[in-house]
Design brief:
Structural class: mainly alpha
Number of domains: 1
Shape: elongated
Number of helices: 5
Strand order of the largest sheet: 1-2
Largest sheet: 2 strands, antiparallel
Number of strands: 4
């Protein structure tokens, strides 16, 4: 039989608590680093028009015409401007670490959230364009004579976040584990 005596139990408990805090901090840092790298990757893929390797539905002729009139590239990938509003948030509770990834963060305006929701859901959307502007945009082009009275748009459903998460989920978990191990050894992770 072995008998052990632990002296200065308070110091031992403090050391164990500090070790536990360090573990949570290292894990949180590993998650933050991975979320940041995947956020940048998703931004690049959205700008290219293929989040998660799945090409987005092409933009309509009317959208190309509107972009051309504004002096922008009419052949730009659809929804490439959404890459600017991707966010991530890592939150730590005493028992868990949660992270959110995508467009639904508080720092994203409600109008951007609405745009993303409409594009992901698809369906028939009411036009917000006034009659005079609709005539200005659509009326001069002979292709769009029928579209002068257009008040609704049939918008295709475009999955943006889901294909990306599906493609990179296992890689994210492996990278978080690897970054946690490196951080626990005292290495710099980036």
């Amino acid at each position: 039989m072995i008998t052990a005596v632990i002296r200065d139990l308070k110091k031992f408990k403090r050391d164990v608590d500090k070790e536990k805090r360090d573990i949570y901090k290292n894990l949180k840092n590993a998650v933050k680093v991975e979320c940041f790298s995947k956020k940048e990757l998703l931004q690049k893929e959205i700008e290219a028009g293929t989040p998660g390797g799945v090409p987005l539905t092409p933009i309509t002729e009317i959208w190309r015409l509107c972009r051309k009139r504004k002096g922008k590239d009419p052949e730009a990938p659809p929804l490439s401007m959404l890459s600017k509003v991707i966010r991530y948030k890592v939150k730590q509770t005493p028992e868990t670490i949660h992270f959110k990834f995508g467009f639904g963060m508080p720092s994203v305006s409600n109008s951007w959230k609405r745009i993303v929701r409409v594009h992901q859901k698809g369906g028939v959307v009411q036009s917000q364009m006034q009659e005079g502007k609709r005539f200005f945009v659509l009326g001069r082009n002979p292709k769009f004579k029928i579209a002068k009275r257009l008040k609704t748009w049939n918008l295709p459903s475009r999955a943006i976040i889901e294909p990306f998460i599906k493609k990179y989920q296992h890689q994210m978990i492996k990278n978080i584990q690897r970054n946690f191990d490196r951080k626990s050894r005292g290495e710099w992770i980036s």
